[in-house]
Write a structure and sequence with these properties.
230 residues; globular; four-stranded mixed β-sheet; Uridine Diphospho-n-acetylenolpyruvylglucosamine Reductase, domain 2; alpha/beta; 29% strand; 22% helix
Amino acid sequence: MYIKHADYNLSLKDLNTFAVNVTAKKIIFVSTISLLINIWHKCKTSKVPFIILGEGSNILFLENYLGIVVINRIKGINITEKNNFWYLHVNSGEIWHDLVQYTLKIGLFGLENLAYIPGCVGSAAIQNIGAYGLEIKNVCNYVDIISLNNASIQRINLQQCNFSYRNSIFQTKYNYGYAVLSVGIKLSKIWKPIIFHSFFKNINLIQINPYKIFNTIYNIRKKKYLILRK
């Protein structure tokens, strides 16, 4: 996505992963659905441009932004245990990497291959993020979206998400006038490592565990990220 607009003076440098030093008319951090809806209607009535960001990881600003930038901080994680699976209901403003770390900390495995991917949970579903043999579509159960026009909430089941390589229905049919509220994640209690990548070739398969995979991928991605930021 490319954003191109006029000059203002509120910096977005720390709110996009490319650290592009552009500005916006106003930046609003939102932690409730009601505030998000309220801002949308005000912007729509006054014809002010409006955009929602999480960590600003899937956007490149070319010029200063004329409108309102809403920073999604709608957070919360709910976990339900069933016989064979863990079911996570995660609000879209949660930081993705923090979620991966949290699941490992409490002994829920299956997200470790997606360590250190920038962005929030909402954008993870929108972009169908993936790395080292795993994509969101492999663990997603559903995505809840809200119509910003009438505040109605709709659950989009996995089969309806139209996930493909770095793409989903949330970039097409639900791209405008909607926001991702939460993502349902389904993790098997029977952990099976995804270790086909050459980075794991020197690791003894008997010693493989989720933490080793997480640490290996985290270190790889962190080095790449630091190089890109230079």
